Amino acid sequence: MAGPEAFLPPAAACMGVVLPDPGQAHINGEIVHENVAIEEAARKLLRAKVPTLFPGPLVLWAWNETAVKKATAIYALYTALRAANKGALLIPMPDYRPKYPKINPEVEINPNHPNLTIWHNKIDVCMFVGVHCHQANLSLKIIRGGTDCYTIAMCAQAGHEDAMLSFRDATPEKINRLTEAVKRTSGEVSSNGRVSH
Questions:
Q1: For the segment 61-80, what is each residue's pLDDT rounded down to a tens digit?
Q2: Structural domain count, the chain
Q3: What is the bridge-based pairing of β-strands 24-27 and 30-33?
């Protein structure tokens, strides 16, 4: 569109993307069984040059026992991913305050300008986990509109329509299922170090 509207992509919900029901997920707006999405997420993370996990404050701070269990599961996921893909990064989003005048994008993601961290690190696939829904949707929309990074969101609630792939009802067990899929799928890595199709 002409004018300022062209700078802001429409919300995915305005484009017809709906949130999945329990036991489901969505891939590019299409509702699928969550097992299909777990396998696809594992493949996307393993095939990426710089797959990056962005854990948010809901899992970075030990505010309850579930948060501690999720954090442990996320670190296990990162360890498995890093073992199979040396380009993998883990960049935390500890809070949502603007990081001005400057942040170190190798150490932390700025939720108000996530595209800067994506561009700086040349991230081609990222996964949000433990980020409050309102902040995740804003950041995911900015990434979708300003980068070519493939976005995955593992949400503790109903999912994120602005992610390209989104799970709902994230639990430590569901994160562990993704870790197992990464380990299983990493066996498909070819001699050139990339996952075969």
A1: 999 999 999 999 999 999 99
A2: 1
A3: antiparallel
